[in-house]
Write a structure and sequence with these properties.
2 domains, Thiamine pyrimidine synthase, transferase activity, transferase, 325 residues, alpha/beta, three-stranded antiparallel β-sheet, D-Maltodextrin-Binding Protein, domain 2, signal
């Protein structure tokens, strides 16, 4: 049963004068350092200070995009691909925030495989993947950009791809540098990598926080309060990465707390959380549009019948950061 977000009586009151307003946020995956600002905002009282009680919903088989679009959650943390795919497909979503200011994904291979020195060398090799059309567009672009023939064999292994790569059962896969990449380093795995943006793929933001466009238009003060507190959480985490890692470990079920600390250290060292001006969460229009166009042009974004969508020419209304004003 979907609860109403706010009563009609609440709409007549200033946010500060009302009782704590209950909201929910759905996650895109199990708890990790991408979500650190949300946890900080909750556990350090930033949401409470804005008059909000925020429930962080556990990851489930239903995507965060679907939960938000159906009003089963008020806000959602979505991967860049999940947001752009859902929005292009007609979902009532608006992006409010981008966590990672640059692409954190990369293509990785086993350094013991002496046949791989550059993306062109991946032609004819075996890829362990996750089953999305984005992967094929990404890999083909990288190989072609490097002068190779975009032909390879694929096996869908999900997170088992990393063990398969380490054992030499496959030749390459994709990972997030700030999590799987850090984990590989902690495990002492010998891996080389190629950044997507060095081989023809546009740089992009990673990790959007989104809400329904309807909620944004009907209750902008609630959205603004939630986002102010969320920003305060990410700002605090950026200023206190060690303490933020401790807070996340306390909030979740992490068999290896050292991974959380190493991930947070990697995020800060890589300059991913703050942009060039030192801001957190800023969506850069050119960066946003370039990736959207790449996905359209590559045939990744499809309608409900499975047909590739045509580039609309403008996606500036897919996101809104007026809450920052």
């Amino acid at each position: 049963m979907i609860r109403p977000l706010l009563t009609a009586a609440f709409l007549t009151l200033p946010l500060s004068a009302a009782a704590q307003t209950p909201l929910s946020v759905a996650l895109d995956w199990t708890l990790n350092t991408n979500h650190i600002g949300i946890i900080a905002a909750r556990d350090r009282g930033f949401y409470s200070a804005e008059g909000l009680t925020v429930e962080v919903l556990p990851f489930s088989d239903t995507s965060s995009a679907a939960l938000v679009a159906s009003a089963a959650a008020d806000f959602g943390y979505l991967s860049a691909l999940a947001f752009l795919s859902a929005k292009a497909g007609g979902a009532d979503l608006t992006a409010l925030w981008a966590t990672m200011q640059h692409e954190t994904g990369r293509l990785v291979y086993n350094l013991d495989n002496t046949e791989i020195k550059r993306p062109a060398d991946l032609s004819g090799k075996t890829y362990a993947g996750f089953g999305s059309a984005w992967e094929a567009a990404l890999i083909a672009t990288m190989i072609r950009h490097d002068g190779g023939t975009p032909e390879w064999d694929s096996v869908t292994l999900g997170t088992g791809a990393y063990e398969a790569l380490a054992s030499g059962a496959v030749d390459f896969t994709l990972e997030v540098a700030t999590w799987e990449g850090v984990n590989g380093q902690l495990l002492g795995r010998r891996q080389g990598s190629f950044r997507y943006q060095d081989y023809g793929v546009p740089d992009q933001h990673n990790g959007y926080i989104a809400t329904r466009a309807g909620l944004l238009s009907e209750q902008p003060e609630v959205v603004a309060a939630f986002m102010r507190a969320t920003k305060a959480g990410y700002d605090w985490a950026a200023d206190n990465p060690g303490a933020a890692a401790d807070l996340l470990v306390q909030a979740g079920d992490f068999p290896r707390p050292e991974l959380v600390h190493a991930s947070m250290a990697a995020i800060m060292a890589g300059g991913w959380l703050r942009d060039e001006s030192g801001e957190t969460g800023r969506i850069r229009p050119e960066r946003f549009a370039q990736m959207a166009k790449f996905l359209y042009d590559s045939g990744v974004l499809k309608d409900q019948s499975g047909q590739a969508l045509v580039w609309p020419g403008d996606v500036s209304d897919w996101y809104d950061q007026s809450w920052r004003d």
